[in-house]
Specification:
Layout lengths: L7 H13 L2 H8 L3 H15 L4 E3 L4 E3 L1 H24 L9 E7 L3 H15 L4 E7 L1 H10 L4 E5 L7 E16 L22 E2 L4 H9 L10 E2 L2 H9 L5 E4 L17 E4 L7 E9 L5 H12 L7 E2 L1
Parallel strand pairs: 3-4, 3-5, 7-8
Antiparallel strand pairs: 1-2, 5-11, 6-9, 6-10, 6-11, 6-12
Helix pairs in contact: 1-2, 1-3, 1-4, 2-3
Length: 308
């Protein structure tokens, strides 16, 4: 096989199909027609002499050989981006495209706050935003599918750099007629564990809420798939929950109270909460620019949070 026959663009096509498991959506991501993308993938398979995908009328699956080749294709594409960053002469600054993700319980509430200063600082930077759960986002970060992740610290694992941005306190979210409405103060030991509503397993906020209340992992019961569902469960009178500060506000800055059915209260003394940070690969040639991004975010703290 001739090395010159390999194209970085073809590798991008293959990685897109592998990630999306769909030729049509992969073509949309790569801004080409589906027939063109399919033809190039077929051509690459012929050049390599292996089938990368198992195609059916309903789904697309990676073959065992395809898994290995796609993994290596990500490495090749990541190194190609490093080459472009070096050739650009940016000296580690942020140029081109930045794939920035955040955990589900943070992204929708923090992105509106950080995008204006970020766009003002790097107007030519192309931002690709996404959300996910901590474990999945860190896997994508290590594999080179993401460039930086906003998440709750600490971050475990080698090869990553993480900088703390701010401390976000948790508030108690309860229904408007809850027994704690008229209480003069609020402490964690005032909560009834049987009333505590949680996110489903896999969300780091679930573990943080349990730890804050001094509880061990709890199975059974009713769990929410996301914060908005959790908020509406509280509004329906199903119980109470710990809600991150940023998630208690609307885009306009008011309380997200679901028509007055939800109330929020802060805790006395040192409140429970989480430290939000920015993580990236230590080997990324744009490390200086990512550190600058962390500094920018740290300098624009959301109201009610504290410097970490």
């Amino acid at each position: 096989m001739i090395l010159a026959g390999l194209s970085l663009r073809d590798l991008e096509y293959v990685v897109a199909v592998a990630e999306l498991r769909h030729f049509g959506r992969a073509a949309e991501r790569c801004a080409v027609s589906q027939p063109s993308l399919s033809a190039q993938v077929r051509k690459l398979e012929e050049q390599l002499g292996v089938a990368l995908f198992e195609r059916t009328s309903r789904k697309v699956l990676l073959t065992p050989c395809g898994e290995a080749i796609v993994s290596q294709a990500r490495v090749v594409l990541d190194e190609a981006r490093r080459l472009l960053a070096l050739a650009d002469g940016s000296d580690g600054g942020l140029v081109g495209r930045l794939r920035l993700a955040a955990i589900h319980t943070l992204g929708p509430y923090l992105f509106p706050h950080v995008l204006p200063p970020l766009r003002a600082r790097w107007p030519d930077l192309t931002l690709i935003l996404s959300e996910g759960r901590t474990d999945g986002l860190l896997e994508e970060l290590r594999d080179g599918r993401l460039d930086a992740v906003l998440l709750a610290l600490p971050v475990e694992g080698e090869g990553l750099t993480a900088e703390a941005l701010f401390f976000e306190p948790f508030l108690l979210a309860h229904s408007a007629g809850h027994r704690l409405c008229g209480a003069p103060g609020l402490n964690l030991n005032d909560l009834d564990p049987s009333e505590l509503l949680l996110l489903e397993e896999g969300h780091c906020l679930r573990d943080q809420a349990l730890a804050a209340c001094g509880l061990t992992a709890r199975g059974g019961g009713v769990h929410a798939t996301g914060l908005e569902t959790l908020r509406h469960m509280v509004a329906a009178g199903a119980g109470c929950t710990l809600m991150p500060l940023l998630a208690t506000r609307t885009a306009g800055g008011g309380a997200a109270d679901v028509g007055g059915l939800v109330a929020y209260r802060g805790f006395d003394g040192d409140p429970p909460g989480r430290t939000i940070g920015l993580a990236w690969r230590a080997s990324d040639p744009r490390a200086r620019g990512l550190a600058d991004l962390a500094g920018l975010l740290r300098g624009r703290l959301p109201a009610g949070t504290a410097a970490a």
